[in-house]
Structures
1.
Amino acid sequence: QWKGTDLMLRALQNVARLYPQACDVREVVSLPYAQYVQAMLESDVLLDQLYSYSPAMNALTAMAQGLVVMSGGEPEIYDLLGETENRPIVNVLPSQGDVEQALKLIISEKERLSDWSQQSREFVNKHHNYIKVAGQYVNFWEG
């Protein structure tokens, strides 16, 4: 609950009742990692955290797989990364209503899922590539 998943789940369940043909709701709790990743690969959208400013590892892992992610994606994180064009994270206000509205938009524009998926992958490849990040650590410590 402290990540907002309770509100996100209720919002998703409400939207799934309105659009049952468009939603396959999977609440994932205590799965072994390999099964969790498999469930991710079978999804198009991941609802991660409602009360965050930036995506954490779960969201980044999903984005690397090409999922559309609803999580922290405040303008400040894009500014910090110097990203002015590709802002793929679905950032919502911390309210059930805003989550529902965002989910309805995704459903109404489902033909764009492929584009959004590609944008997620590109974002992770550009900003969280392991070679780039390792180089940043080296540069920091070598000063």
Note: The helical segments are 5-18, 33-41, 57-64, 75-81, 96-108, 113-127, 130-142.
2.
Amino acid sequence: MKIVRVLWGDPTRFWSEIPERPIFNDEFVFVWGKSTADKLSEMGYRVIVMNDIQLTHPEFSTPNDQYAHKLLALSVAEMMWDEYLFLDWDVKVVRPIDVRFWDLIRGRGPVQCPIYGYPFEYQQKFKSHVAENELVLDPNIPAWIDSQQINLIRHSWSHEQNHVIPCFCFFYSRGTKAASKLFDIYKTNKLVNCIEEFAMYCFAQCSLEEYITQYEPGVIRGRENEYSHFDMTACAETSGLINSKVDEYIRKEIYLMHI
């Protein structure tokens, strides 16, 4: 099984998350920018350069389009390999990787991606949190939250007053062309913001319960119970409620954690 990572844009945003050496034997990084690729190679990573001059794909250079880089890279990956596991850089190994890890993945469905969520009225809760705590944010973030709220309403399941969506920190494919289908869904529906996650929701076309049964992996959660977006107390219960729902259908053995 090949392990796939993707890196685009200003690499200084990510170096703190990137392990000094590859964690897995068959680990490949699809990367934009030769200088970034050269540094990764020096660190021991096997790189596949998507563009040796530009740090981003021209079509995906805005905050609202940037995550299409993942789908484009994975569309290439599935032409190279029949089986692969994509991991975001903020996914950490919390239990030694052994034979059981690979068996648990292969014992689930041919496409896997965990779920996570946001509370209803997340947009308003976020604005209140920023005002109350006098936070100084990247100016792109408020516009991102506004766009996200619109898409959460359109492309999510509802559970216990929360919007539930796939969490693309982990994506496994075995014998499928799922990534290419996700990329087509993104283009056809003109998705923005959490592009790959909303595309995965559209790809599944099923109930939340059916999604958990068919697509939820057994080695990672979308978010841990204690996680809350921007450390917002208004989000504190969301992850726990969603994980409890998942636990009704499958028993997980946690090897990876989405930080």
Note: The two ends are 23 Å apart (CA to CA).
3.
Amino acid sequence: MIDAYKRKINYLRLSVTDRCNLRCRYCMPATGVIPKQRQEILSYEELYRIAKISVSLGIEKIRVTGGEPLVRKGIVEFLTRLSGIPGLRQLVLTTNGQLLEEMSEDLRAAGVKRVNVSLDSLNADMFGKITRGGELSRTLAGIAAAHQSGLQVKLNVVVMRGVNDMELYDFVAMALDQSLAVRFIEYMPAVEDENWQRYVVPGKEIVERISARYPLQEVPRQRLSGPSRDYRIDGVTGTVGIITPVFDHFCNDCNRIRVTAAGQVKTCLFSNCGFDLKPYLQSSDENALAEILKRLVQ
């Protein structure tokens, strides 16, 4: 699919739940959010139909997200079905890692190629404060288990000035020691946060701070890459990436559409514009669903 700006849309973010077992400070209020009723959330069969039709239209990569996707019952069986869609080249999953240790083998067997793990601090106390109750040891054990099972691992680190930006070198060292890909993300909260800009560390500053200690070589972007600008350090396989939603918008290169767990499809995570897919899912007419997806892209 080619959109009106001549961008090739080949990447689908598919949310399977709005529920999460953490309350990360930049993602939801401390009190949490009122979860949608079960009947409001798309069934696995409906999600599968969307995925299959999307792949038939040119989607080559699917990222399964939430909430926290691993809290939904039956997720492994669903991932197994997704990975079997003809034409799908990459199936990846984003997780907070709290349930990853016990599920990594099953995820690999289901056809998942990579997990992106949210990890904003290597200090147990700070990790608990950022996630409002998460256990660092569980996420680290999940990362180790994912490696052991053969899954590729990327770490997503939301950098917050005065909160965790003093840990940049610790994360780079982890990437080098464990051959991981670490991506530093500019702080851009999904919830209302007065004066949130005070926490933002620009991507340019992050690169400058890291390159003062490590010589960085930029890696050419791959066809199915996300918005990260990636760098290598000579002699190691681990990489460092920067995602800059605030100071260096990557909209020109955006290649994705997004489907929420409640069936809303949109072109941007922060957009209020999109379509409700539920009416089209109630019909057996596959063409109607395909046409609304193409209409969105246009």
Note: The mean pLDDT is 93.
4.
Amino acid sequence: MDDRKATYERFRTEIAGLPAAPDASNRHLLWMSESLLAVARNELHCVELFIVSEHPLRASIGVVEDLLAHQVWTSSQGDFSAARVVLPRGEHFDQLAALLCVELIDSGLGEDGQEAFAAVEPLLALALSRDMVGDPVLNGLIGELSLLRRLLRQVAAPSRADVLAAWAGSTPSSRDFQLGSVGVEVKTTQSTVSTHHVSGFHQVERGLSNGGVPETDLFVLSLGIEWLEAGAGGTSLPELVDSVLSVTPGHEAQESLLARIKQYGGDITIGYDHRRDRSKGRYAGRFHFRFERLYDMADDRIEVLRREDVNGLKNLDPESVEFRVLLETKIRGDLNPIAGWNALVPYVLAKAGFPGQDKPEGPGRFAADS
């Protein structure tokens, strides 16, 4: 095995073993070349590259420029000035990080950091341009903001503050939206079917609301996002945020909303600052939704893994169970799921008891086949 291949294999093994950061402020730095190049894994399991340089590195490709952040970083060994690039989450990006480290070192990082970076920039851009639009954090933010916009538009002005408070945003929470005793989990997929990752039983079972009140309803909103070619219509994230702001009452509420958007998913991987980033190419992509389906998870025809299925297994931690669901387009005629924004948004608001919404029939209507 030649030295270059051996170095790549070593880097790949070391990066694969990097622990995720415990929070957004702490990192375990792994130095790939002493005082020149380090990697870390943030709290969202994304690999970060730190390229030490006293002066900001210049990027010539838009998708790379958008992700390049230069500042003084603090570590247990002391402060250092470096440019950071955050790669999307995924095992293949761990491999890319190892390859980039090898290429940077072989391209003369110790002699001329800018020249070495310019040599690897096309490789980095190729990988990022293929995956940035599909970033699950970006898709998730768009899905939740799309529901928030429609909820705000549907209610009378005095109720908009309650809707804004119902969105968890960046705050750790068991629900994406908690409208009184009604919980809504928003799942956004680029698939043509309603298939989604479930991170725990709490996402498919009613429990206690964020306020500690027993939930009466739990819905999963399945959104099928489709990214469009330039000029094909649709909307963009900056336009979506503008639209939400237009129905957000008051300057203070708008500033709070923008802060929550910036922090969504952890400000290191997305950090969408609306005023700063609205013109950046990364966020210019246009999208629409192929489908919107609201699933009532109390329906006994929805057959997914439940907590009761694993209770009593002494060698299994129920809190560690994650799985993928595939929900049919028709479970109970037109009752479940409820399809389309115009039908599902008023339904959720009525269930939550918002003024001006016709109250649908109560919970438990799916207890037996009809």
Note: Residues 113-131 form the longest helix (19 residues).
